[in-house]
DNA sequence: CTCGCTGCAAAGTTTTTGCACTTTA
DNA sequence: TAAAGTGCAAAAACTTTGCAGCGAG
C-alpha cells in the first residue's frame, strides 16, 4: 500500500528564498524593500509550519520602526503570488499561510480538539482527484483537501468530539 | 472504474424538513418561530443548491415585517446544528450553505472562472481518506475536499486560468 | 408566565484602501 | 527621480452581540 507521509519542514535557506523572491519581484517591476525582507525573516524565525497574518503582525509589535499591519497583509499577497507562500482557509474565519518553498504539495489533517495540523501526501489520492475532475469536464488547477478529526493524542485523552 | 456522479437535488419536502427541525428544537428546548419557518421556506423557494447568508437576507429585503439579518445568521447556525444545512467555506470570505437533508455526502468541483460548483461523490476517494486519516492516528469526523479548475464551458471559451 | 427569540444598531474580526510621505531601483 | 511601497487610520465585508421588548410552549 502506498504510504501517506508526514514530513518535517526541511531546514530552510533564507538566501534561496530571497533569491526566488527577488527574481519574481524584478520580473514584475516590484521592489525588495526592507520590510519585505524583515517579514520573510520573521516567517523563518517563527518556525511555525502554519501561521496567520496576525501571528506575523505580533512579531513586529515591540519593534521600531514597526512594520505595519497593512504592509504585512500586502506582503503576504505578494509572497503568495511569488509562490513563496501557500494560503489556506481552514475551518476558521482567518487565512493560514505556510512556506511553499522546497515543500512538495500536500494536504491536511486537522484535529478539531487541539487544532493540531498534520500534513500528508498520497499519490493515489492525487490521481483520483485528477480523474474525478476530468471525468466531469474540469481542467483542475489546484485543490484543497482537509480531513477533520480527533488526533491520536486527544483521542488518548478521551476526547471524542 | 468507479464513476463519479453529479446529482440534481431531489425534490425537497418542506414538511419532512420542518419535522426534523422541530424534533431537534424540542430536544434542545428551542422554539420553532415564524421567522425560522419563513427562512426554511425561502431556502426552498430560492432553489439554489448553494447560497449565502446574504442571499437569504436579500429574500426578506422587500417584505414586512422583515426578518432581520441577525435572525438569518442566528437561524443558519441553528440549522447547521440541526443537520438541516451544511456549511462550507469555499475560497472566499463568506460562508456557503446547502441543504443536507436527503443528500448524501459529496465534495465539490469549483470553476475559478465562472464560479460554477459541481458536486461529486467517489467511493474510492472516501475510502482512501479514511485510510490516510487512520494511518496517521486520526479518527476522522468529516472532511472537505475542493478541486478548483476551469469548467468545460469556460475552457471551451478559451479561458485557461 | 417563563425563557427563548427578535430587531436594531453597535461592535467584532479579519482584510483592504486612500493618502501623504518615503524608499528602491 | 519616477514608480512602487509604507504607515496610519478609516473603511469594507462578513458576522456576532447587547439589550429591551415580543412570543412560543
The structure class of chain A reads alpha+beta
Radius of gyration of chain A: 18 Å
Distance between the termini of chain A: 29 Å
State which percent range the strand residues of chain A make up. Answer: 15-25%
Per DSSP E runs of 2 or more residues, the count of β-strands of chain A stands at 5
Would you kindly provide a brief summary of this structure?
The first copy, chain A, is of the alpha+beta class and 161 residues long.
If you had to describe this structure to a student in words, what would you say it looks like?
2 copies of one chain form a homodimer. Chain A is α+β, with helices and mostly antiparallel strands and 161 residues long. Helices cover 40% and strands 18% of the residues of chain A. Chain A is built from 6 helices and 5 strands. Chain A has helices spanning 14-27, 34-46, 53-59, 69-81, 123-135, 152-156, and strands at residues 85-88, 96-99, 107-111, 117-120, 139-150. In chain A, the strands form 2 sheets. A 3-stranded mixed beta sheet of chain A has the order 4-3-5. Chain A has a two-stranded antiparallel sheet with strand order 1-2. In chain A, α3 (53-59) packs across α4 (69-81). Chain A starts with 13 loop residues before the first helix and ends in a 5-residue tail after the last helix. Chains A and B meet through α5 and β5 of A and α5 and β5 of B. β5 of chain A pairs antiparallel with β5 (139-150) of chain B, so a sheet runs across the interface. The structure holds a DNA duplex (25 and 25 nucleotides).
